[in-house]
Design brief:
Pfam families: fn3, Ig_3. Keywords: Receptor, Repeat. InterPro entries: ECM_Regulatory_Proteins, FN3_dom, FN3_sf, Ig-like_dom, Ig-like_dom_sf, Ig-like_fold. This is Receptor-type tyrosine-protein phosphatase F. It comes from Geodia barretti. The chain has 610 residues and is mainly beta. It folds into six domains: 82 residues, Immunoglobulin-like (Sandwich), CATH 2.60.40; 89 residues, Immunoglobulin-like, CATH 2.60.40; 108 residues, Immunoglobulin-like (Sandwich), CATH 2.60.40.10; 82 residues, Immunoglobulin-like, CATH 2.60.40.10; 82 residues, Immunoglobulins (Immunoglobulin-like), CATH 2.60.40.10; 89 residues, Sandwich (Immunoglobulin-like), CATH 2.60.40. The protein contains one helix and 48 strands. The strands form 13 sheets. Strands 12, 13, 15, 16 and 17 form a five-stranded antiparallel sheet that branches. Strands 19-18-21-24-23 form a five-stranded antiparallel sheet, with no helix packed on it. Strands 6-5-8-9 form a four-stranded antiparallel sheet, with no helix packed on it. The longest helix has 7 residues. The model has no long low-confidence stretch (mean pLDDT 82).
Length: 610
């Protein structure tokens, strides 16, 4: 082949002749393959030669990784590849002064997916059926072609063996699970599969199947006495509020009908209630908004589903207008039950603008929950009452909130007697604690005090001027959190004064370091170890019995150091007789008692001078 350029003047000089390759001159093949390596080799046609080759590769799956090397052999092993991935491999070389490239595709062996699907959603269809939908496994974790999925479900708290639903086909992302038990909590997981096996399961998504009759709006479930915002109910069957039953009653009779009823008890006929219409099926009774009409009345609606045995199953729903903010139009009210030693007080919080999705009660800015309950006060005017039963004084605040922009709150101060001050709790024996306090001044009607602690029944102490009490029969080594409140008949108790104390055991005997006792003719210096939880030490001494008999001394001629501090671990006894033996006792103290160590030591000297 020769080529020359042409212009208006004619044809130029032809190029040097070059032979064109008329057929493939390099033949590629794939050798051994593993999960991360691919070996390729090649041969040349008989009429061509080459000295070097450039091998490059491209990840065709997801990451797009590339690589390139130069080799002088006719075989090369690609390493550190991704698992279960297809690569486009190119070998380039120079043949007859021409750069040529030859391609081949090869895939590493698959392994199990290294991550679960990216999402997992569960939607309740009825009380025995759910749908499960999931996303794709992230590309870099597929490790091969996804061939299917495994969905595992089991009863929460039941045996640790789930039921498997196997799905064939990597493009499928949804399945239906039926024959579940109603009113039962289930955990759902999903895992992806490849030719190498099943990958790891996702975190559990929990769902509770509803009872035999329930309400559903899209995938959200509302059981009996739930609340729904009118604005969430649509005008089509797909967005209607559904009253659903999925199975016949125990008699096996088919569903024969169903009706919606408005707050005053009248039946909801088709297009009869402003803002709503009803259609009826054998298993679903729909309540949907009618396009272009006004807003229906707030209040409690109920749905009845009937069968041929005249057995009615009813579910109630509170429907409220989500237009205005939730509010508390008045202050908190209080009522009292003065029976018993601990009078109870009920705080009442009334709100309008729909039921609260959260009701928070606090006492002095600390959240309290005991005794809380919610009661629908008036279904027609949609007032909602929230109550809290308490026994302790403080500033109580009720805060209500729902899906509307603003929350509302109201407060009430429940006054109690003044609290005792200067409260202390001190161990006064191995199994006793003495609690002391300063009574309020003035007493303000205080007739006594109540001391309580975890694990004990507590005790009431008569007398407003009483200022101490000893708890006995306690357990050594246990930590006690002790609280004390003042008692005034028919009034709440104030917030308790709390003290924490741990009962210690009688201390171990002190250990004397005999090797470092220092003596002179008139002094003996001793040291000892420091046991834990001590309050002090005392050193005492006296002449030994043998010394008193030998010297005919009638008294012991002893002494004491007095109480030493808890961190003192040495003491020098002075003004002793020369060359004389003494019995020395070191005593350690703590709130549970004391223990002692006694030993004998002599001063230096005692010989005669001549």
């Amino acid at each position: 082949i020769e080529v020359a350029a042409v212009n208006n003047a004619g044809t130029g000089v032809y190029s040097t002749p070059r032979d064109q390759l008329t057929q493939d001159a390099l033949f590629l093949s794939v050798g051994s393959v593993s999960t991360t390596t691919i070996t390729i080799s090649w041969t040349l046609a008989e009429d061509v030669t080459a000295t070097s080759y450039t091998v490059s590769y491209f990840n065709t799956n997801c990451s797009g990784d590339t690589g390139s090397i130069t080799t002088y052999s006719m075989e090369y092993r690609l390493t550190e590849l991704e698992e279960g991935t297809t690569y486009l491999i190119t070998v380039a070389t120079t043949l007859r002064s021409q750069i040529v490239k030859y391609n081949i595709t090869a895939a590493t062996n698959a392994t199990v997916p290294s991550a679960p699907p990216s999402s997992l959603d569960v939607c309740v269809v009825n009380s025995s059926t759910i749908t499960v939908e999931w996303g794709e496994v992230p590309c870099i974790h597929q490790n091969g072609v996804i061939t299917g999925y495994s969905v595992r479900y089991q009863v929460v708290g039941g045996p640790n063996t789930g039921t498997m639903v196997n799905i064939t086909g990597g493009s499928i992302s949804k399945t239906t699970i039926s024959n579940l038990d109603s009113s039962t909590n289930y955990s759902i997981q999903v895992a992806a599969k490849s030719s190498a096996g099943t990958g790891e399961y996702s975190s559990s998504v929990f769902v509770e199947t509803p009872p035999a009759v329930f309400l559903r709006l899209n995938c959200e479930i509302f059981t009996n006495h739930s609340y729904v915002d009118i604005s969430h109910i649509g005008s089509t069957d797909d967005t209607a509020l559904l009253c659903i039953t999925n199975r016949p009653p125990p008699s096996g009779s088919p569903i024969s009908g169903g009706n919606w009823f408005v707050p005053d008890g009248t039946r909801v006929a088709f297009d009869e209630v402003t803002g709503f219409s009803r259609t009826r099926g054998s298993m679903v009774v729909r309540l949907r908004r009618t396009t272009g009409t006004g807003t229906a009345a707030e209040g409690i609606y109920h749905c009845e589903v009937m069968d041929n045995t005249e057995t009615d199953r009813t579910v109630y729903v509170g429907i409220y207008n989500g237009g205005g903010d939730i509010s508390i139009p008045g202050e908190l009210a209080v009522d009292s039950d003065l029976n018993g030693a601990s009078p109870q007080f009920t705080l009442t919080c009334i709100s309008t603008g729909g039921p609260a999705t959260t009701v928070t009660w606090t006492r002095d800015s600390t959240t309290v929950t005991q005794g809380a309950q919610t009661v629908l006060n008036d279904p027609v005017t949609a007032q909602y009452t929230y109550t809290l039963t308490v026994t302790t004084a403080g500033v109580y605040t009720c805060t209500v909130a729902n899906n509307k922009p603003s929350s509302a709150s109201a407060s009430f101060t429940l006054e109690g007697p003044p609290s005792p001050t200067d409260v202390t709790a001190v161990q006064t024996g191995p199994t006793s604690i003495t609690v002391t306090w300063t009574p309020p001044d003035p007493l303000d009607g205080i007739t006594g005090y109540r001391i309580s602690f975890a694990g004990g029944s507590g005790v009431d102490i008569d007398g407003g001027s009483t200022n101490s009490y000893t708890l006995t029969g306690l357990t050594n080594g246990q930590t006690y959190t002790i609280s004390i409140v003042a008692i005034v008949p028919n009034r709440p108790t104030s917030a308790p004064e709390v003290r924490e104390i741990t009962l210690v055991s009688v201390p171990e005997k002190p250990t004397i370091d005999m090797d470092i006792i220092d003596t002179t003719s008139t002094t003996i210096t001793i040291s000892w170890s420091l046991p834990p939880d001590v309050t002090g030490f005392e050193v005492s001494w006296e002449l030994t019995e043998q010394t008193r008999r030998r010297r005919r001394v009638r008294n012991a001629e002893g002494g004491t150091s007095g109480r030493l501090s808890a961190d003192q671990n040495s003491y020098t006894i002075d003004k002793l007789r020369s060359g004389t033996s003494y019995d020395i006792t070191v005593t350690v103290f703590n709130p549970a008692g004391s223990s002692s160590t006694t030993f004998t030591r002599s001063t230096d000297g005692g010989g005669r001078e001549y």
